[in-house]
Task: inverse folding
């Protein structure tokens, strides 16, 4: 029996090792072995979670959460509730008894709208508080599929609005608040910034000084942008098309429907919608500089689609609260920092938004990492390009926030 388990274990380890060696990864990505191993670890833990009994899963999960919370012992934090929404606040007792009002960052964690937490992102958010000497509010918004759209963006907006109304309780300067998020959190940051800017309901609140989007996902209309075309099928780049499509689908519909197969081939929209003026304006591949269109790039055809699916989902699909790139007029949004990574299917979502914001007269700092991959920002998977991206952002924030 013991021998059998041992043999199975050795076989599994060898199989994983062979897979890691053989599975292709594009030339040029920073620390390819780290990125490969990270990708496969995510894959194994996804399947492992399905295979292991719930009790063991919960125990492992709580252990890793506790490790995360202990990661920055010098940064004080406490959990609170802002207008029904749980949040974690870092460093709201000013270090060294300063009395000047300080800046703040409201942070929305990534995880495809379906995973991660303020615990998983604890090291990153605590580090921002420590390095920038700012108050950080990390929002524990509701996750899909149990709570589909608009639960997440409603939570993020509600928590931010509550905070903006109570800044003096935290000794925060109303002119120096940033909204920030990574990946799906970048989507929520963009959407929340749009709401705060354009919804008359929030006219009397302080306007965010900065919006910061770290490799955000910003639209679920076109899963064949040049970056999706180039990197969508790799198993070794953290994110692949099938995962992102599944995540968007769950955020859209919860457990009520599954259009992932249609989405995989852009068949979840109609032919007419694909060539509509709105889509041509908001999602034109012309916004993406030619240097990003590699030899395998094809202009996707627009003469096909599924009317029935589109009719069912179009209201949400075109809603900027779900997909901030679908908003036609971006004029008046806060100064913007956008990070994109070359080896990332979401690269072009970020590029299109950066270009459109620039056209709309918004000051934009667009940082593109030529050796970068999805999830490089933070110490999730330590690499040189990841460290560089943190340093670049810290420098920007020290100047601008
Ligand atoms: C898209 O969906 C329509 C309607 O279900 C179907 O007839 C068509 O074959 C699909 N297109 C592709 C490329 O699969």
Result:
């Amino acid at each position: 029996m013991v021998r059998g388990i041992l043999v199975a274990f050795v076989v599994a380890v060898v199989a994983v090792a062979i897979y890691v060696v053989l599975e292709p990864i594009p030339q040029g990505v920073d620390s390819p072995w780290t990125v490969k191993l990270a990708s496969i670890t995510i894959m194994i833990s996804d399947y492992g979670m399905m295979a292991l009994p719930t009790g063991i899963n919960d125990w492992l999960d709580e252990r890793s959460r506790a490790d995360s919370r202990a990661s920055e012992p010098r940064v004080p934090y406490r959990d609170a509730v802002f207008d029904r929404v749980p949040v974690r606040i870092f460093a709201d007792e000013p270090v060294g008894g300063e009395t000047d009002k300080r800046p703040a960052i409201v942070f929305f964690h990534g995880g495809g709208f379906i995973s991660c937490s303020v615990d998983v992102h604890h090291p990153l958010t605590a580090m921002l508080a420590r390095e920038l000497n700012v108050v950080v509010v990390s929002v524990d918004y509701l996750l899909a599929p149990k709570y589909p759209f608009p639960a997440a963006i409603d939570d993020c907006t509600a928590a931010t609005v509550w905070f903006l109304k109570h800044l003096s309780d935290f000794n925060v300067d109303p002119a120096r608040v940033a909204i920030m998020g990574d990946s799906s959190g970048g989507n929520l940051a963009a959407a929340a910034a749009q709401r705060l800017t354009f919804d008359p309901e929030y006219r009397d609140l302080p306007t965010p000084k900065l919006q910061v989007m770290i490799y955000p996902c910003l639209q679920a209309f076109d899963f064949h942008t040049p970056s999706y075309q180039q990197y969508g099928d790799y198993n070794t780049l953290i994110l692949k098309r099938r995962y992102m499509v599944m995540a968007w689908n769950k955020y859209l519909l919860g457990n009520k429907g599954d259009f992932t197969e249609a989405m995989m081939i852009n068949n979840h929209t109609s032919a007419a919608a694909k060539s509509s003026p709105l889509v041509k304006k908001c999602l034109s591949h012309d916004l993406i500089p030619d240097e990003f269109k590699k030899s395998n790039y094809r202009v996707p055809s627009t003469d096909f689609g599924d009317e029935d699916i589109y009719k069912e989902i179009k209201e949400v699909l075109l809603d900027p609260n779900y997909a901030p790139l679908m908003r036609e007029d971006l004029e008046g949004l806060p100064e913007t920092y956008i990070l994109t990574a070359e080896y990332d299917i979401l690269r072009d979502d970020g590029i299109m938004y950066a270009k459109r914001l620039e056209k709309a007269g918004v000051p934009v700092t667009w940082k593109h990492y030529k050796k970068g991959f999805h999830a490089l920002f933070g110490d999730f998977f330590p690499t040189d390009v990841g460290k560089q991206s943190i340093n670049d952002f810290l420098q920007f924030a020290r100047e601008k926030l």
Summary: The radius of gyration is 21 Å. Residues 265, 267, 304, 306 surround 2-acetamido-2-deoxy-beta-D-glucopyranose (CB under 6 Å).
